[in-house]
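Sequence only, no structure available. Ideas?
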Amino acid sequence: MFYRYLDSPIGRLFLAGDEGGLKLISFPNGKKTYEPEADWEEKAEALSEAARQLTEYFEGKRKQFDVKLSPAVTPFQGRVLQALQEVPFGETVTYGELARRIGQPKASRAVGMANARNPIPIVIPCHRVIGKSGKLTGYGGGLDIKQALLNLEQGHR
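Reply:
I predicted one. Tokens follow.
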């Protein structure tokens, strides 16, 4: 496993992956912070494409990512993450709508749990999911980061 850090407008991001692709992105604060494990190798060039695309995203120059991904997820979570990638830049969707999109309209809670376990936030845009009332709901990097990402996208539509 390789890792690197990327300075961004929302703080220093931790990126990790292997030959299969990007496996995780971690925020500097919040519920989902990761540190490299003892056998991981710091190797910026191994994740240079992911870093380049994230930088373009933060500059408002990229609206879709095409970096190779390799998240370790269950089949259900994989379906949810695939549906998340289909939510257009600058738009939002509710958990219920996301459940309908994967063909399980009564599974909004399960969709919420899968969304919360997204190991590759930003690239797989879980920040675009909001509550039924239209309010922001939990986010691994904190609601301030979620709002900042939504504001960034609204400003570059």
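The chain has a mean pLDDT of 93.
Hope that gets you unstuck.
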